[in-house]
Amino acid sequence: MFRAKFILVLLWQLLLVAPVAMAQEQLHLDGEEPEQDCGLTLSGKVLDHDTREPLIGATIYIEELQRGTLSDEYGNYHFHHLCRGSYTLKVSYVGYEPLTSGFRMVSSTVRNLSLHADAQQLKAVEITGSRLQEQAQATETLQGRELAETRGLSLGESLKKLTGVSSVQTGPTVSKPVIHGLFGNRVVIMNNGVRHESQQWGNEHAPEIDPLNAQQMRVIKGAAGVRYGSDAIGGIVLVEPNALPDSAGIRGEIALIGSTNNRMGTVAGMAEGKLRQLPLSWRLHTSVKKAGSAQAPRYTLNNTGFEEQNLAATLGYKRQRFGAELYYSYFHTKLGFLSSAHIGNLTDLENAIGRERPEETGSFTYTIARPYQDVTHHLLKAKAFYQTGEVGELQFTYGLQQNVRQEYDRHRNTGDRPQLDLDLQTHTTELVWEHKPIANLSGSIGVSTIWQNNSYANGTRPLLPYFINTTIGAFASEKWRKDNLQLEAGIRYDNKSLDIKRWNRTEGVLRPSYTFHNFSGSFGALYDLGYHFTLSANVGYASRAPHAYELFANGLHNSAASFERGNPELVSEDAVNTMATLNYHSNLRLNGELSLYYNTINNYIYLQILPDYALGIGGAFLQAEYRQADARFWGADLNFDYALTNRLTLNNKTSLVYAKNRETDSYLPFITPGRTDNTLRYSFENGTASRLSDSYLALGGLYVGRQGRSDAQSDPVLAAPDAYFLLHAEAGTQLQFGKQQVELGIVGSNLLNTSYRDYQNRLRYFADEMGRMIMFRIKVPL
Amino acid sequence: MKKSFRPYLAFLFMGSLLTFSACKDEEDPEPDHEHDVVTTVTLTLTPSNGGQPVTATWEDLDGPGGKAPEIDQLVLSANTTYTGSISFASEEAHDDHHHAHDLTADIRAEGTAHELFYFANPQGLVTFTKTDKDANGRPIGLETTATTTAAVQGKLRIMLKHQPGTKSSTSNENTGETDVDITFDTTVQ
Taking every annotated instance into account, which residue ranges of this chain make up the domain TonB-dependent receptor plug (chain A) (predicted)? Predict the structure, then answer.
């Protein structure tokens, strides 16, 4: 059923795309017809004459036509609809001598333009821009308008905008990123250059990061263990704040976000500056959020309000050869947990599943009652770089994190005590030397350490034991580039020792200890096929040591009525991920990317619900135990834009994930169902005299299929929910009041107020998802 | 340019953070378990015509799974009326002694959010009537009257439900969250 529907959707898309692709071909053919006067295309790359590195953002100007363009992130530029004739091309780029060249245009032409570095300018201008960051592994970036549209949402919800990324949810407030079906400890999150360390093993533990402080979020898909740690089997999420200002002066920004449905209000403020006398810059960012109970279309999701307070401060010192940065961030959240999802035993669970609507619905309130979570995360980062002569740069990063997670159950008379109270302290260090290109070869080597101590408060649930984790890793990665080909390879070794202390009723304190050796490697190739096609392929190997929770979990999970138990016999899981990506870019009409991947994970660790119940004083509970099996994940991501007219663009994002237990040939639980999101976007033509600029209007639909690859074995409690379709719309503009600029935006989700349940929401047993929500935002730069 | 700032010093300083991160006070987990979790239920039935009270205890110190719970048999006399009371405790086992924390008073204090349910199988094995009331006049079930008739063997199931905001004239054993759900093998002789 699911499959049939999905194929229908895909077919519909193919029908839509096929004529487009043909039209595209037509366009190229047209260009080569000499009789055709004005359909010619001029394109090519802007390159550094010596290094052959592409130059990003170079200005290319045709004098006769007064038409200009910028080279894109691959250094490509293009002009379409040119007529035959003689033209003068002017190319300029900061730090390079400008180039002027005349040429005759007879047919569509590819012209590569190489610029010479300007020795004089080089001295005066500090080049801080990054080199081409493109890599063989599939990556996606959330920034600019798309990022702006997610303002007000949590990190996990924001990342769902990217193809191949979904989320595991616990009610409307907790969302964790899922990359190609993998999540939790398999996805490494780098928050401002530091490995985010919190209780990631819990599906109901959202990353403690303020997305409002991020200027871009990048996702590296697939096994990517080399750079940040062998455990990145699923991928990496990089959350990056804006760079500190490099021109003197002070500026600021205020943003207000509000929404219907849960009546969320957010205030965010930023101030930054740079001193005139010293190379010292600073930034302060803060945001405060508060939301009440979310509303499903037919009832209130009782006790789903949340609040969040964030603060981030950065101080940077930068000279030509040396720089240092000090960063501190504070995150605190208190979030309510759907009260009817807090259940006692299996009978309660069956009762809850049998109910049409949750037992307690209540009315809208901002009050957060038990059960709720209260989480505080501190991050202190110190970073320094030093230019080692002309050959490279040495970077050192130290991070100190403290994560305090308190969960308050709905018990009787427990005063103010939490029932779960975990304290995780982490020190991370990293020393990396990045070397500049030596004969087409560039790369980096480094060492990193993690030292981590976990404990819980006395008298609280010993769900996770005390542990100390010491990890030491070393890596090297190199990139070789010549002409149209880029090759990259990397290797890493991590030594992890885990010292556990747990209390046992009969034997007292036990101190099991483990040592894991984890290797990680990658090999990738990227080939520029020309004609706006880039082909890349990557094979990554990553190996993740089991987490202390997977080894020694011991406790009751109230929302699942399951008693979860670790398995001390677990070994590291190993993944080999093969991925191929075809990118079609810098075209007038159609641009897009298709990735295919195949991921073999040996000793994949998963939580299996056991057939026999555990009997306790509260009645019968499901028992779940960590197990290992050889698994296979495969799938595809498609993302394309098609410009129907100059103003109207269709965007499609489709992702498919399949997974299987190779040993028993059965389905794995909790895998992302196929999804496709199609959006039509209209950009308005705002004249130069207009007060408005960058205005747009978009309407789209998200279709999520039913997880057909599930059965009574993978989901013994309740079968996967039906497919659903949600309508969404976005609009935005920039207003100019005299000298004051104001950015406005509206985002509407689930516009038809559809009642649905999502397979990857852990609370799907209990309640529907959120109904219609309209979110308004206004940003005022000061 | 004066050379007062030496970058390598900064690196040395930062490197020292590495070593300093490795010292942390060594503490052990307390031989303790989660507070306020019911581990022990004791049912006491006192014959109204005098005689020795009958008690039966259901105890599980280590939670679901692990060691099997210790469950007493309930032995009652036929054609007898008993005054019943039930108590709940959280027992924390220390190396050589038990430390009990009584939770019955808490349940009584939060009577408007709790109710006990007694089910006999076969029906009529023993019949419980709740005799205590919460602030809203709804039964709680900590205090009961139990009546037996014929001699028969069966099972007595006792449930404690937590019903904050949902306890009402229509609430029943399927309402709210289950705190306790236990069964005693029962003989009426």
Answer: 132-236
- Report if residue B95 sits inside a domain: yes
Q: What is the pLDDT of residue A247?
A: 86
- The pLDDT value given to residue A134: 65
List of residues 6+ apart from A166 with CB closer than 8 A: A160, A177, A178, A655, A672, A675, A760
A351 touches chain B (CB under 8 A): yes
Highest mean pLDDT among A198-207, A283-292, A618-627, B164-173: A283-292
Q: Are A226 and A522 in contact (CB under 8 A)?
A: yes
Closest residue on chain B to A342 (Cα): B177
Lowest mean pLDDT among A131-145, A211-225, A422-436, A531-545: A131-145
Tokens of A139: 């990556």
- Candidates B19, B21, B72: best to mutate against A (most CBs of A within 10 A) is B21
pLDDT of B30-61, one tens digit each?
755 666 778 899 999 999 988 899 999 999 88
- pLDDT band at A29, cuts 50/70/90? very low
Architecture of domain A150-154+156-781: Beta Barrel (2.40)
Instruction: Look up residue A213 and give its DSSP letter.
Output: G
Q: Where are the domains positioned within chain A?
A: 1-31, 33-124, 150-154+156-781
User: Minimal Cα distance from A400: which residue of B?
Assistant: B21
Q: What is the mean pLDDT of residues B15-21?
A: 53
Q: Which helix (H) or strand (E) holds A105?
A: strand A99-105
What is the reported pTM? 0.83
User: Does ipTM exceed 0.85?
Assistant: no
pLDDT above 90 for A317:
yes
pLDDT at A772: 97
Q: Under 8 Å CB-to-CB from A414, ≥6 apart: which residues?
A: B35, B36
Residues 132-161 of B with CB under 8 A from A: 159, 161
Into how many domains does chain B fold? 1
Distance from CA of B28 to the nearest CA of A (A): 7
Residue A410, chain B, CB below 8 Å: the answer is yes
Who among A324, A502, A614 is closest to B64 (CB)? Answer: A614
Q: Determine the pLDDT at residue A7.
A: 52
Question: Of the candidates A362, A417, A621, which has its C-beta nearest B35's C-beta?
Answer: A417
Mark which residues 309-328 of A lie under 8 Å from B by CB: 321-322, 324
- Torsional sign, CA A229, A231, A235, A241: negative
Please identify among residues 518-557 of chain A the ones whose CB lies closer than 8 Å to any CB of chain B.
Answer: 555-556
Mean pLDDT of A413-434: 87
Q: Is position B10 within any domain?
A: no
CATH number of the CATH domain containing B57:
2.60.40
Kindly state whether residue B23 falls inside one of the protein's structural domains: no
Cross-chain residue pair A616–B22, CB shorter than 8 Å: no
Residues in chain A: 782
A117 Cα to chain B: minimum distance (Å): 27
Is residue B171, in this structure, part of any structural domain at all?
yes
**Token code pair at residue A34:** 């000499």
Give the CATH class of A33-124. mainly beta
* B178 touches A at CB < 8 Å: yes
Per-residue pLDDT, averaged over B11-33, amounts to 58
For residue B165, the model assigns a pLDDT of 83
**Least confident window among A273-282, A571-580, B8-17:** B8-17
Classify the phi-psi angles of A519: left when phi > 0, otherwise alpha if psi is within -120 to 50, otherwise beta: beta
Boundaries of domain holding B114? 34-188
pLDDT at position A575: 94
Name every chain B residue with its beta carbon within 8 A of the beta carbon of A623: 64-65
Kind of pairing between the strands at A40-48 and A113-115: parallel
Q: Are A505 and B93 inside 8 Å of each other by CB?
A: yes
For residues A542 and A523, is the Cβ–Cβ distance under 8 A?
Answer: no
How far is the C-alpha of A700 from the C-alpha of A189, rounded, in Å? 29
Residues of B in contact with A429 (CB under 8 A): 14, 17-18, 21
